[in-house]
Amino acid sequence: MRNFFYLFAIAAVMLGMASCGDGNNPDQPEQLTPGALKGKFTVAPGKQVRFSQGNLQYHQDKAAADNDYFAFAEHQYTIIGKEGNEGIDKVPCTIDLFGWGTGNSPRETSTDDADYAEFHEWGNNRIRNGGNEANLWRTLTKDEWVYLFYDRANAATLFGLGSVNGVNGSILLPDNWVLPAGASFTASTTQGLEDQGSDYHNNNGNNFSHNTYSAKQWATMESAGAVFLPAAGDRIGTDVLNVGSDGRYWSASPSGTSIAYYLYFGLYDLGPQYGYYRDNGQSVRLVQDIN
Do 206 and 157 touch, CB atoms closer than 8 A? Predict the structure, then answer.
């Protein structure tokens, strides 16, 4: 009898190991890095990424630099706006508009593009609510932004403009999108494309009226993998402009010596390969490669 209970205990342990396992159990939920959304997005042939839970922020709570930290916004629709970003030279401050490649100097406000000569990856830093380890995240390249909007399978049906919780922005849907029950979504069609598919133009109405979600409704969309990029505006020096009307998201790709590429969207246009001066403060939305 003693041997029977011994063998039963061994079998139970082995069964438990099989169910908790090594991550290969198809019925086991995939483990995500803190701060990562579940949706998978193809950004190049054979390459997928996940987006972070919100735009990148930089916090300085005290005068000492060693108290500064990066974090992701609490919600996808969270933006700092004029009051926070125009206080970039003050202490304390929280900002979410950055000059190009300022992973090493996020509070840089110089209007001299020569001060942004090299790209320093924001994702090389520790993100407090994004795993809190260095090198877990990265910035999309210009070509990856273009592929995401125009080259992946069914791309034209997988993006749209709208508003979430009263904040205007751009909506991106994952590769395997399935509309949740009771939800709705209107894609921004590719009618009026110019520059060989690099821009979406809509001169017949406000893009942000295409889709409107409350915070609760958006939670349903997000649970199915949807991503929202809020129109957080931009910054020149310490002056913040266009909050709520323009979204500008940096890529990691330079153009010449003073320009860099970025995703732009507004009331009537969307293009993933615009170029602008590197000193312009813009949003940053980091991604994580899927192994």
Answer: no
Structure tokens at 250: 């940096």
**DSSP H helices in 21-108:** 81-85
Against a cut of 0.85, is the pTM above it?
yes
pLDDT per residue rounded down to tens, the chain (291 residues): 444 444 444 444 344 433 333 334 445 567 899 999 999 999 999 999 999 999 999 998 766 666 789 999 999 999 999 988 888 878 788 999 999 999 999 999 999 999 999 999 999 999 999 999 999 999 999 999 999 998 999 998 999 999 999 999 999 999 999 999 999 999 876 544 444 445 676 655 678 888 999 999 999 999 999 999 999 999 999 999 999 999 999 999 999 999 999 999 998 888 999 999 999 999 999 999 997
Closest to 46 (Cα-Cα) out of 153, 125, 136: 153
Burial zone of 165 (CB within 10 Å; 0-12 exposed, 13-18 middle, 19+ buried): middle
